[in-house]
């Protein structure tokens, strides 16, 4: 019996064991399903083309251009003339061999990049000859393209994500691109769109052999947005040209809307050097230039003393607080003693008697010292109170804080209050005379050029400003952002006198060079003392040249602030530049070629090199 | 023969056979599928070749069915002689594929004589044992049979194709059925279990287990038969320990690393899933990912990705497991059980000894293939590269197994006629 049933029994037993094994593998254990998916399915991302950036008149600022990566699948490479091929590629023979070796160690069956970011021109050459080199092929890729070199710091650039970026936002994966600085960074989400996913079936060598389940699980990408900035390309370009060989910045705002018409920071750089093969090398050069600081956006980040333009604000505050009226006058003796032995100089001739209007166009230090002391002394119950009232008024103009514009960098600037001085001088240890430098925009005050342009716009608007911004529209209508109108704490009736004074600055005062035929320009010059540390010694440098202006007087279309570092005095560089910008913006072309030429050709490079020459030098000569 | 043979045919077995070959073609198609496949009639594709061999096999099958059954008995010695010549000829004319000289290449079509040797040997053994003067209990007969099995066995080992050679162990089943002494079964089983115990545990533990088992056996037998003596058990104990020791020695010194690896993986001692365990692991992933219903025909991601090596040949079961799921695997195992049991059932009914032994022999051969191949795909048996009969890709294999089945069908149909 055993003999007869042995093989049948063994067969059945085997079958039962196999079925038991099948149950445990297929029905009870789900981990093999997951293993299979990880094994055989590859997930690839697909990217929408990054959005274009246009100026306010739909003129192109940033687009994309194709670049090519030379790829190779090592197992397909045949013997070839490395020397000839390296010549075609524009790479050294050793480099080429090294890259192929690296690719081989990575995988012989998967493509690797041999030479990345090949320009269109070289691509054309390679395309013609690549048939000679089996195993190599060109893969199209996209990088930023800049039709004209413009507004680099404002626009920002694009580069590969770092580990940190990936940690911060798990949207990003290795090798993907992210916007950095400026618009590219701030509006990253609009510009990049949303990547999609595509699932592929792969084989055991990780080669893709088709789509997985006919794309059932694929996620479509969401289109990137094109951005329309408030920037005027012509004006921006003109501003950058005017600033060649100078350092500083221009901020031009349309007062009625808060739209920033141009944002110049000089020196700048050509944005196209931050794409392509030499990106990192070029970036390092820019970052290491600690003297010219091309990556430092002076119009947003540089904090300067506001200088004489600040007198307009003090005038407004004094009027609002009722400590002066427009006829209040003070006499000036080429300056005055504000305390025993403490003299503040002034350009006024001895015996000049200024009312508010003439004090503005003559930029009389004596007058505003007195005005400021009245604010501090009389506006409140005591000087601390007075100081804080002054501080509050300034804050309503957007000083001492970020303006919440749509760019990722900025500085708060600084407006002192009573606590600040109590800290420095102890409570009761200071008087209005102690802080009198604030009267003329020196002292502890710090402002950025965009803050200056913004308060100029507030004066032009007779009492309010719109939050300054750079984005006008995006390609779909999904952006319905309303920019906040911010009222200043000064009643509009007080503005006319100050504006009249600023008009006279250009008509008969310190900035007659800023006159434009047929346009009523209001402005205020500034000449700001500044210091730098040279080998540990605080050394006074040539004054900064400052000008704020708006025009036309009764229907302001542009408010502008110009800073020219070490530009001697306000009317020497800043006022002409601002005036040319206004003329360009309002009339479309500049008639004063002589002034334009002087600005374009003028250079302050020698001035900037002085402190590094190692020789003694004179300033403000 | 008259056409009446077709009325006496075992249609159930033929149906099972046809189901298996059809399922085989379908899965070979899937395992070798690519977008450029032309289909069944493209002879440059694996599935096309397989289809050609299947048609050819069916043609041969019809011829076999119409031949007088006595022919095979007379033909047995000649067939065996021819198959040995073919195996010998390999050393001169053979074609080497992945290290083994197992193939003749005739006009682009490969032919593997070791497959045919299985049928020939089955016929030869049956012929030998059914001779009037043969007595399986006598050493003379046993020696003869051993020699007839070992001739092809060694010729195949020398190719070297130890996997194919191993299946000749299948002849244990008909021999045992025909009255081979029980002691051979005990030796056969003891050797097998000792082999795995020795490799699974350290030598000291193994000795302990052996002593314990043998004393247990002794006391059980003592209960059944109080007269039994202890010295055969002590002798058996010494032999076992000696064997165990030599297994250790052979394993470490005679086996090559790849053999050791294959065995270690099955024993669970190795978990190197990238290296030697790759095949088994991938096969398990493919089967496991199939679930109850499978991923569907041509939808197996593991199969498409070629993750499982040799999938259309030795690992065809992983394609079935992945694409047809538990239901497909169960169905296939069921078919094989049905096939083997049906052959045995019919064999037992044979009055003619030659035909009975032959049918029993091929049942054993099919079982061994079934056991090793599916066991390997499931990760339960060491990797031994032999095909799954009727299902795996391989022209010679499908031809040889078809011939086996059709000869059996012939014998069965003519059971009551001429004996």
Description:
The complex is a heterodimer of chains A (621) and B (419). Chain A is built from 22 helices and 22 strands. In chain A, strands 2, 3, 4, 5, 10 and 18 form a six-stranded mixed β-sheet that branches. In chain A, strands 12-11-22-21-20 form a five-stranded antiparallel β-sheet. Chain A folds into two domains: 44-229, Penicillin-binding protein 2a (Domain 2) (Alpha-Beta Complex), CATH 3.90.1310; 233-612, Beta-lactamase. In chain A, helix 10 runs antiparallel to helix 20. In chain A, 42% of the residues are buried. Helix content of chain A is 35%, strand content 22%. By secondary structure, chain A is of the alpha+beta class. Chain B has 419 residues and is mainly alpha-helical. Chain B has a domain at 181-254. Chain B has helices at 11-31, 46-66, 69-93, 113-130, 139-157, 162-166, 172-177, 182-200, 203-224, 231-253, 257-266, 278-288, 301-304, 316-349, 353-377, 395-413; strands at 95-97, 100-106, 109-111. Chain B has a three-stranded antiparallel β-sheet with strand order 1-2-3, with helices on one face. In chain B, helix 1 (11-31) runs antiparallel to helix 16 (395-413) and helix 4 (113-130) runs antiparallel to helix 5 (139-157). The radius of gyration of chain B is 23 Å and the shape is globular. The two termini of chain B are 15 Å apart. The relative contact order of chain B is 0.15. The A-B interface holds A 3-4, 6-8, 10-12, 14-15, 17-19, 21-23, 25-27, 29, 31-33, 35-37, 39-41, 201-204, 209-210, 212-213 and B 35, 173, 176-177, 179, 185, 282, 284-292, 299, 301-302, 304-307, 321-322, 325-326, 329-330, 333-334, 336-337, 340-341, 344, 348, 360, 363-364, 367, 370-371, 374-375, 378, 380.
Topology:
The complex is a heterodimer of chains A (about 625) and B (about 425).
Chain A: H1 2-28, H2 31-40, E1 41-46, E2 53-54, E3 60-72, H3 82-89, H4 93-106, E4 112-118, H5 120-129, E5 136-145, H6 152-155, E6 157-160, H7 163-168, E7 177-180, H8 182-186, H9 188-192, E8 196-202, E9 208-211, E10 227-229, H10 233-242, E11 248-254, E12 259-266, H11 279-288, H12 298-301, H13 310-321, E13 330-332, E14 335-339, E15 342-345, E16 352-354, H14 356-362, H15 365-378, H16 383-395, H17 418-425, H18 449-460, E17 464-466, E18 471-474, E19 485-487, H19 495-507, E20 522-534, E21 537-551, E22 558-564, H20 574-587, H21 593-601, H22 605-609
Parallel strand pairs in A: 2-10
Antiparallel strand pairs in A: 1-8, 2-3, 3-4, 3-5, 6-7, 8-9, 10-18, 11-12, 11-22, 13-16, 14-15, 17-19, 20-21, 21-22
Helix pairs in contact in A: 10-20, 13-15, 14-19, 15-16
Chain B: H1 11-31, H2 46-66, H3 69-93, E1 95-97, E2 100-106, E3 109-111, H4 113-130, H5 139-157, H6 162-166, H7 172-177, H8 182-200, H9 203-224, H10 231-253, H11 257-266, H12 278-288, H13 301-304, H14 316-349, H15 353-377, H16 395-413
Antiparallel strand pairs in B: 1-2, 2-3
Helix pairs in contact in B: 1-2, 1-14, 1-16, 2-16, 3-4, 3-5, 4-5, 4-15, 4-16, 8-10, 9-10, 12-14, 14-15, 15-16
